[in-house]
Amino acid sequence: MKYFYLITFALMLACQPAEKDASIPKKWLNQPLDLTSIQPVINTYHMLDTSGTKVGSMIFGTYFENGKLVSRDTSSFDDGSVYEDAEFVMDTSNFTLEAVSVNMRINTTKLDVDLEAKENQVNGLYRVIRDTTINDYPVDSLYSYDVFRSELYMLMQAINYKEGDTLKFNALISTSMTVSDASIYYAGEDRVTTPAGTFDCTIIHLMTDGKMPQNRIWITKEKPAKIVKFYVPGPELSIELVKSKPLSIYPEAADKL
User: What is the CATH number of the domain that holds 213?
Assistant: First the structure.
C-alpha cells in the first residue's frame, strides 16, 4: 500500500490539441498563471528506487480542447502490482476541475471513480471491486476544498515562484474522497540531470497533513516550464523525466511511446 499515493502522478496519451488563448489573465490558487507553460505534450517519467533501479513508469499528456484543459495519465509498476489510468477535465474560464475519471488496480483490488464537480458540489460514483465483490458508493456531497489533488500536477509548473512564497490550500483526493490540508513553498534552486537533459530548476516542496504524500518537485526555470523530477520521501522514490514530445499524435500511437 505504500505505493498507493503515487498513482495520481501518473501519465499518458491524448488527442489532437486545440489552440489556447494565453493572452487572457488567469489565476489558480490566487496566483497568476503562465499559460505558455501548459503545453500540449506527452511527458514520460521513470520511477527509481534508492539504488537507482527503475521500478515503474508514468506518462502524462495535456492538451486543450473546446475551452477545456484535459490531462490524461497512466502509471504502472514494473512488477505488475499497480496500474492506473485517469482523465481530468478543467474549465479554463475559471481554472476549476469539473470532471475526474480514475481506474486503478492494486493487486486484486480495483477502484473506479467517476466524478463531476461544480462549486464544491461533487457527484458521481466511487466503486471498489475486491476479487468478485463489488461495492458501489454514490457521491453526492458538498466538500470544503480549494483544488483537487490532481490539479497540482496539471498547473503547478505554470506559477512563477519566488523566495518566500508559500501557498496554502485544501486538496480533495479523488481516490479516497478525503480533504488534505496542504501547502506549496519555494525551497531554492538547483541544477538537475535526468535522462531528458540537464536543467536549471526551481525547487518546490509540497507539504501535507499525511492524507496525501509530501513531494519535492523540480520545475525548470526556462519557459515553457515543465516538471522534470519528483522526490517522494515515504517510499523514497525519485521520478525523473525521460522524454518530452509535442502532442500531435493520436492516442493509439501515444500508447506505444
Answer: 2.40.360
Torsion angle of C-alpha atoms 151, 63, 237, 108, degrees rounded to 10: 80
pTM score: 0.85
Encode pLDDT of 100-139 as tens digits. Answer: 999 999 999 999 999 999 999 999 999 999 999 999 999 9
DSSP bridge partners of 45: 58, 241
Q: How far apart are CA 79 and CA 81, in angstroms?
A: 6
DSSP secondary structure letter of residue 155 = H
- pLDDT grade, residue 234 (50/70/90)? confident
Does residue 110 lie in a domain region?
A: no
Please determine, for residue 15, whether its predicted confidence score (pLDDT) is greater than 80. Answer: no
The answer to whether residue 208 sits within a structural domain is: yes
**Distant-in-sequence, close-in-space partners of 148: CB < 8 Å, separation ≥ 6:** 88, 97, 100, 117, 171, 172, 173, 174
Report the number of distinct structural domains present in the chain: 1
Three-state DSSP state, 15: coil
Nearest to 80 by CA among 101, 109, 58, 106: 106
- Among residues 188, 190, 165, 170, the alpha carbon closest in space to that of 180 is found at 170
Range of the domain at 232: 4-95+144-254
Within a domain: residue 218?
A: yes
Domain-embedded: residue 112: no
